[in-house]
Amino acid sequence: MALMQDLEISALIGEVDPPRAEAVTAIAKAKHAGIRVRMITGDHAITAAAIADELGIRGRAVTGAEFAAMTDAEADSQIDGIGVIARVAPEHKVRLVEVLKRKGNVVAMTGDGVNDAPAIAAADIGIAMGITGTDVAKGAAKMILADDNFATIVAAVEQGRLVYDNLQKFIRIQVANLFMFILAFIGSSAFAIAGTALLSPAQVLWIHMAIVAPIGAVMGLDLATPGIMDRKPRPFNQPIIVRSMMVRLFIVGLFMAAATLVLVQIGKTSYDSLDVGQSMAIVGLGLMNITVALNLRFPEESAFGPSTVSNPKLLWAFAWAIVGSMLITQIRVLQDLFGTVPLTGEQWLVCLVPAVVLLILGELFKLILRARRPKATAAVPASPVPA
Q1: What is the DSSP code (8-state) at residue 223?
Q2: Which domain holds residue 114?
Q3: Are residues 253 and 360 in the same domain?
Q4: pLDDT per residue over 186-205, tens digit each?
Q5: Which residue of 13, 18, 25, 272 has the smallest Cβ count within 10 Å?
């Protein structure tokens, strides 16, 4: 055409769509949490590699055609070194998800277009954009981002770890007390201390509902454990209470059961009263549950750190355990209801001893765990997130 002849460039304009500042921080945070982030995009490989470098996404860039040309064995061996796949078709995204899953990763896939939907559906966790995402992508997803912000995914991971961590805290104190009651009643019969009359049903109910339940409920709504986002992801088939923790809970329950039997026996022999022994056992269990919570709230961190006072509600629960133990032994109506008697100052000191010993033993054990903790944590491939 004549109009297209003899043209001269009068200006050249370059545009850039910079990554969000919070995305860089989120990707770095994900890396510390053991989450490998990858970029899979339709952009040119050079452009994608430059953006990935700004975001802190490591690994070489390949095209979708190069990735498709790899055999399954080649893809499996090379995928750990690949950080960017550019110029992709929908089938390339699906294959990336399949390769990562085949290598034992838990895969999250984010996207907004129709061409992202197959990979979103194939991933363990499909994530669609709520603002720019198509209906097809949203329909294939398990989670939809209301703000289309990658940082929200990392925040969701942190919140998920918090919920799971708090669930573990709640279960720990419940299981420790379950072991305690089973072993205490077995020991009472085996050593002829009080038989099945070690504690009355009302007294058992008091420990469960008035002491353990409030502390457990507050621990179930606790603040995040220090360093929660510095852990590597747990194996997807790992039980909620691992074997080492179950052994630890059994030992704690055994100690509490033995202390309960000793307190009841002291009441019977030193004060000639089973009622005094039962009252001392109730008070002792109330105090021991405070130290159990301090020991098991953070399995490796010291109870004497600033995190102990970070949750005021937990401090109130501890205060109630002490006040409740006073009320049940000092208020006449509660004495009649739960079969308790008033305790002297000397008896209270005796009840305090097992709690203090349990706290000290717990701190010594944590000290050993911290000494055995690796100095540096190696990077592990986990939860790659194609985007």
Answers
A1: P
A2: 21-154
A3: yes
A4: 999 999 999 888 999 999 99
A5: 13
